[in-house]
Amino acid sequence: MKIATYNINGINGRLEHLLRWLREAQPDIVCLQELKREQHSFPESALKDAGYNAIWQGQKSWNGVAILAKNEIRELHRDLPGDDDEFTHSRYIEAFVDDVVIGCIYLPNGNPWPGPKFDYKLRWFRRLADHAKGLVNRELPVLLVGDYNVMPTELDTYKPAKYLENALFRPESREAFKKLVDQGWTDAIRDLYPHERIYTFWDYLRNAYGRNAGLRLDHFLLNKHIAPRLRTAQVDKHVRGWEHSSDHAPVWIELA
């Protein structure tokens, strides 16, 4: 089983990129982030023609998450439990696909630090962690997949010193991610490649992609039931090099 995540950074403007990559990579399940489209304007028919069912939670101009699958999708949740009156963002959707629970995540960026956006990031992280506690020991496979907007270690950024005051690399963000993983989750990429610099995002500025000045922001967390089935993982870095592509590349894992 091949499961992927891809921050598409505007699905309608980059639909052809997505369809091209789907034809090339043939993932079984895909988590998408940053749809940047309202609910009614999601390109369901084009994806259906490409062989994928879909559920999604849209939002005008910002955010938005979706799960695509070759087989049937049964929706479980359209948001995390708990309320936050300050923000109403489309950042989480959860479904049952191929006997696996998939949580698709687009965690808040949190910049600038310090400030209310960073405080919201940490609150959202706590909500995710509270929900994850009930999933990590379940006797069924669970994956929490997506753009976490966190670089967990110095290996996850090309220049750690540059990001010391960035919300993506602040100690509070990294500690929140560590506490989540320490519930018993497996960080798939880091588990397979414990010592390698692996990036999933390259900024549009200063030729970051050409210089390989990247960040690892997109993660797969596997619960105890499914972690032993992890076999391989890859970043389709070349997709980031396509003209007018997203600033993220698709990332995927394969499970036995």
Could you explain the architecture of this structure?
- Its cofactor is Mg(2+); Mn(2+).
- This is Exodeoxyribonuclease III.
- By secondary structure, the chain is of the alpha+beta class.
- The strands form three sheets. It has a six-stranded mixed β-sheet with strand order 3-4-2-1-14-13. It has a six-stranded mixed β-sheet with strand order 5-6-7-8-12-9.
- Helix 1 links the parallel strand 1 and strand 2.
- The chain has seven helices and 14 strands.
- Helix 3 packs parallel to helix 4.
- The protein has a single domain, classed as Endonuclease/exonuclease/phosphatase (Deoxyribonuclease I, Chain A), CATH 3.60.10.10.
Round the mean pLDDT to the nearest integer and report it: 96
Number of strands: 14
Low-pLDDT regions: none
Overall 3D geometry? Answer: globular
CATH class division? Alpha Beta
Question: Treating each run of at least 4 consecutive H or I residues as one helix, how many helices?
Answer: 7
Overall structural domain count: 1
Helix % is 10-25%
Q: Please tell me how large the radius of gyration is.
A: 17 Å
Note the topology.
Blueprint lengths: L1 E6 L7 H11 L3 E5 L10 H6 L3 E5 L7 E5 L3 E5 L14 E6 L2 E7 L9 H18 L8 E6 L23 H11 L4 E2 H5 L8 E2 L5 H4 L2 E2 L2 E5 L7 E6 L1 H4 L10 E5 L1
Parallel strand pairs: 1-2, 7-8
Antiparallel strand pairs: 1-14, 2-4, 3-4, 5-6, 6-7, 8-12, 9-12, 10-11, 13-14
Helix pairs in contact: 3-4
InterPro entries: AP_endonuc_1 (IPR004808), AP_endonuclease_F1_BS (IPR020847), Endo/exonu/phosph_ase_sf (IPR036691), Endo/exonuclease/phosphatase (IPR005135), ExoIII-like (IPR037493)
GO biological process, one term: DNA repair
Family: Belongs to the DNA repair enzymes AP/ExoA family.
